[in-house]
Design a protein that fits this description.
The chain starts with a helix and ends with a helix. The chain is built from 19 helices and no strands. The chain is flat, with a radius of gyration of 24 Å. α6 runs parallel beside α8, α8 packs antiparallel against α9 and α16 packs parallel to α18. It has four domains: 77 residues, 434 Repressor (Amino-terminal Domain); 120 residues, no CATH class; 86 residues; 87 residues. The protein is an all-alpha fold.
């Protein structure tokens, strides 16, 4: 009987692969990319697994079931059958790869405190994975976790005693998914997710998360170059004397960026100076936990972005040099900082310094899937190639960056 199940599943996996016109080596490569870096086997090993699975010789392990669902962009249960998505944490209670308890569609079992706790743990896992791997590969999983939680909220099959906790946890999941979409360059998806998350947090009475989500909305407005919209959100909140200091600082930052997009340099810099003063006392008891990143480094980045929008590239350059110098030993969050420094160097045509760091940018391009950083690197590489005074060594490296980024888009189409 197990061998018959293996053969049936193997035929299913082969059919899904062939429907996409992927070869077995291509299938192996996509599976490998769906596995976190620190657990990733070599390509030949994965290819040998693919051949054995499709031949129906062995079962597919939990880790590779998740990888298959990612590669095919399908639900685990849809691909492997009900209850086959992941190993249960508790007998009879399935969980997904992030540890979120999954109840079958139409189940009458109420969503209880255990489900809410598992959702909060999944939120923490998503944040950790985003820090390590970036947005585009993680986005389908984050959306899946949020959609399931959102469904549970909508159908009402839950213990009424945990109503507000469920709404709050689901709102937080939506914010995380919206951020991952933003980082992946999926701005429309991010806007849809954050609006849904905002409603959930508001219904839960979770004011701290609601403020975070409003900050996200104003960021999206800036990304879309809608400064008046961003400014209205900031103005509605920045002058509220009841806001915790770091939250108020965030909306002053958004105000400053909006004013810079509108060409109002003096007012923009004044808003950023005010934000700097607001955070000078450190994190206070009233500041929500999510405000840890609203610090002097963030203001330095945002000041550089505002000056860039104003065309003050020679003033931008020392700010971005300082950010990269301070972040070089830091986490992978600093990827965008290096791309922004390269952008500033090219704008001021500092070719010697560009040549010093473009090799680092090339290494970055080779490791990234599509996201905000790859978009900026693509634009900067194109600018280099079109610059008549750029040295050949720099233009050659820029061509290589464009080639690497083109490969990344083919591997991870958005």
């Amino acid at each position: 009987m197990p061998q018959a199940r293996h053969r049936t599943l193997g035929a299913r996996l082969r059919a899904e692969r062939e429907r996409r016109r992927w070869t077995k080596p291509e299938m192996a490569r996509r599976l490998r990319e769906a596995i976190p870096d620190q657990q990733r086997p070599d390509l030949d090993t994965v290819l040998s697994y693919v051949k054995r699975w499709e031949a129906g010789k062995v079962s597919v392990s939990e880790r590779y079931r998740f990888a298959y669902a990612t590669a095919f962009d399908m639900d685990l249960d849809e691909l492997f059958g009900p209850g086959q998505g992941a190993r249960p944490a508790v007998p009879g209670v399935p969980v997904d790869p992030f540890g979120v308890i999954c109840l079958p569609a139409g189940s009458r079992r109420p969503v209880d405190a255990r489900y809410v706790e598992s959702l909060r743990q999944a939120n923490q896992a998503l944040v950790r994975l985003d820090t390590l791997h970036g947005g585009s590969t993680l986005l389908p999983h984050a959306v899946r976790v949020f959609r399931e939680a959102h469904h549970k909220v909508g159908v009402g099959a839950r213990d009424s005693r945990i109503e507000r906790d469920l709404l709050a946890a689901a709102g937080e999941t939506g914010e995380i998914a919206a951020w991952i979409a933003y980082d992946a360059g999926r701005q429309t998806t991010s806007r849809q997710l954050i609006n849904e998350a905002l409603l959930l947090s508001r219904q839960a009475g979770d004011r701290a998360m609601e403020l975070f989500e409003l900050g996200h909305l104003s960021m999206l407005s800036l990304r879309a170059r809608r400064p008046a919209e961003a400014l209205r959100i900031a103005d509605d909140l920045a002058d509220d004397g009841r806001l915790p200091p770091r939250v108020a600082a965030l909306f002053e930052i958004r105000r400053g960026r909006a004013l810079a997009q509108m060409g109002q340099e003096h007012r923009a810099m004044a808003a950023l100076d005010k934000a700097q003063t607001m955070i000078s006392a450190g994190i206070g008891a009233r500041d929500p936990r999510w405000t840890w990143w609203v610090d002097d480094m963030e203001i330095l980045r945002q000041r550089g972005a505002a000056l860039a929008q104003l065309g003050r590239w020679r003033q931008v350059l020392p700010l971005r040099e300082e950010v990269v110098a301070r972040m070089r030993e830091g986490p992978t969050y600093a990827r965008l900082d290096l791309a922004e420094l390269l952008e500033a160097l090219v704008h001021v045509r500092d070719w010697p310094r560009t040549e010093e760091i473009i090799g680092e940018a090339t290494d970055l391009a080779a490791a990234l899937s599509p996201c905000r950083t790859t978009s900026l690197l693509q634009e900067t590489a194109t600018r280099i190639i079109r610059s008549p005074g750029a040295p050949s060594t720099v233009t050659d490296a820029a061509e290589h960056i464009r080639h690497l980024l083109g490969d990344a888009r083919q591997r991870h189409p958005l």
